[in-house]
Specification:
This protein is of the alpha/beta class. It has helices at 16-20, 32-35, 60-69, 83-94, 105-114, 127-133, 137-142, 166-171, 202-213; strands at 75-79, 119-122, 148-149, 152-154, 176-178, 191-197, 219-225. It folds into 2 domains: 1-36, no CATH class; 37-225, Rossmann fold (3-Layer(aba) Sandwich), CATH 3.40.50. The relative contact order is 0.16. It binds zinc ion (2 copies). Belongs to the ComF/GntX family.
Length: 226
């Protein structure tokens, strides 16, 4: 198997016990050299609410959200946003290399096996972005791993979040509405909303808000990067 990022041969170094165990072996699409450029968030004194790394307790972003909404978020992420993640998303989203959707398959799959939810949904691309790119990047990132339900609709925004500064991001108005399928689920079911990157939390807060307004109470969010 070749690394989807750099093309180097991947040596998975399976132990004999792993080969003969009945446990599912999760495919790996990233080589060790590329992996070394990642900054995992595991065991790093993350903010307990949003996984911001190296926070002593609840971070200032989360305190602002609490003041504004009187509610707390429940977010997890796998990797700190760094140069490698930045370049990855540039290739994947801006240049539209859809094959890169699987680069983190092993990491996301492992997380999914340890964290259980009743309903898994995602932050969808707007129609104009979908048409421009030809695929929905968040959907493709997770579609092979979770049984994804499309429950949100994204209204076309003036400009993409990535082109906004921090203040503009925080002040973006609600950009989601619910699809009728949201009524197919019980209000006590555990909901997981997936996104690719958590920056200020603005996007996921709005997605979260839609579910709250429909009476759901048990809502968590997840992103590849924070
Ligand atoms: Zn590589
Ligand atoms: Zn936080």
């Amino acid at each position: 198997m070749k690394c989807l990022n750099c093309g180097a041969e991947i040596n998975n170094n399976l132990k004999i016990s792993e080969i003969f165990s009945l446990k599912e072996i999760i495919p790996n699409y990233i080589c060790n050299l590329c992996r070394q450029q990642l900054a995992p968030l595991k065991n790093r004194h993350n903010c307990p609410r949003c996984f911001k790394p190296d926070s002593e307790g609840i971070c200032s972003d989360c305190l602002i959200w609490e003041q504004k909404y009187g509610k707390t978020n429940c977010h997890q992420a796998l990797f700190e946003y760094n140069q490698f993640i930045h370049s990855y998303f540039k290739l994947y989203k801006r240049y539209g290399d859809v094959l890169l959707a699987k680069l983190f398959y092993q990491d996301i799959k492992s997380w999914s096996l340890k964290n259980h939810f009743d309903v898994v949904t995602y932050v969808p691309a707007s129609q104009s972005h979908f048409e421009k790119r030809g695929f929905d990047p968040v959907y493709e990132l997770y579609a092979d791993i979770f049984d994804l339900k499309k429950l949100l609709f994204k209204i076309d925004a003036d400009k993409p979040q990535a082109q906004k500064n921090r203040l503009e991001r925080m002040q973006t108005p609600q950009t989601f509405s619910a699809l009728p399928e949201i009524n197919n689920f019980q209000k006590n079911q555990r909901i997981l909303i997936l996104d690719d990157i958590y920056t200020t939390g603005r996007t996921l807060m709005y997605a979260h808000d839609i579910f709250l307004s429909y009476g759901f109470k048990n809502i968590c969010t997840f992103s590849l990067s924070r």
